Give the backbone structure.
Amino acid sequence: MLKKKEKYNVAVMGATGAVGEQLLRILEERDFPIDEIRLLASERSKGKKLIFRGEEHEVRVLGKDSFGGIDIVLVSAGASRSREFLPHAVSAGAVCVDNSSAFRMDPEVPLVVPEVNPHAIASHKGIIANPNCSTIQMVLPLCAINKEARIKRVVVTTFQSVSGAGQQNILELENQVTRLSERASHYGIGEHNVPEELISRFSHQIAYNVIPHIDVFDKNLYTREELKMVNETRKIMEAPELPVTATCVRVPVYYAHSESVNVETEKKLTRKEAIDLLKAFSGITVIDDPAGGKYPMPIDVEGKDDVFVGRVREDGSVASGINMWVVADNLRKGAALNAIQIAEVLVGE
C-alpha cells in the first residue's frame, strides 16, 4: 500500500508520447502533491528536456533500475514495456497506474474508473489498470443509467479519433490531408486517393474516409478493440454476464472519441428521467438541445475533462431502451486524467 506523505515522488513512464505530455499537463493543472518528478522514455528520447512547473527536466532512459525512491508510476509506454518493467517498479516499492492493456483483464489487478468503482483501488497489489479510452467514456453514462434502471444489454458503435492510435497517426492524417488538398487543386476535386507511401500506420487511407475496424481481428471476427470494450465494461461494472456488443470505427478526427450507445433496461426510463440521471452523475456534462443544434461534438470536447452526453432519446424498438451520443477527449478522460484521478484516490486527495 502507498505510505501517506505530504508530497510524493512520481515517475512518468512514456513521458514524451501524446499521453505522457497530457499526464504532465494535468499533474500541473490539478496541483498533484509532487516532491520529485522523474521522466522516463525509450533510448531515442535520451537527453530530451521537458518543462514541468516552469523547470526543465531531462528525460531518462527507461530501465529496470529506474524506480528507486519512486512512490507512484504513471505509465503510458505500451503493453510490452508495462509487462517488462512494472514488476521491477513494484519490487522497488512503487504503485503503478498503467494505461496499457497489459494487466486490464488480470483478476489480481483492479480496473478502475474513479467515478464508477473507486472501491476497487483498495485491492491493488502494486498495479492498477487504466481502462481502454472508449470503455472509460462509456461506463460513466452506463453507470448513471444502471443505478436507477438495471441495464439488460448494451450496443455501442464508436467513432474514434486518430490520436487514439498514437502521435504518429496524427501526423499521418495531416500528411494525407495536405497531399489530397494539393492534388485537388492540381487535378480537380475528383482526386480522392493518396499515394500508397502515405499509408503506413493504418491499413487504409484515413483522410476523408472511415475504417470499420480498430486493432486486429479475432477468430470471431470482432476486433481486439471491440472485445476490450465488452470485457472491460463487464469487469468495471462488476457484471460478468452483461450482454455488450461493440463496433469500433476509426474516423478522420484528430482528438476526442464519439460513441453511439444503446442500452436496454429492465425498468422503462423516459428521456427526461435518463437526462436527470446523467446530469446527477459525477464527471458527466449533458448537452442536449437538438432543436437548437446543441449536442456534443469532438471539436467542442477537445481539451475538456468531462464525458459529454447528448441526443438522449427513448428507443422505440424495445419496451425499455435509451439511445445516447457520448463524446470525450480520449487523451484526457480516456487516458491521462483517469490515471491521475486514480492516483488522487491513492493519496487521499
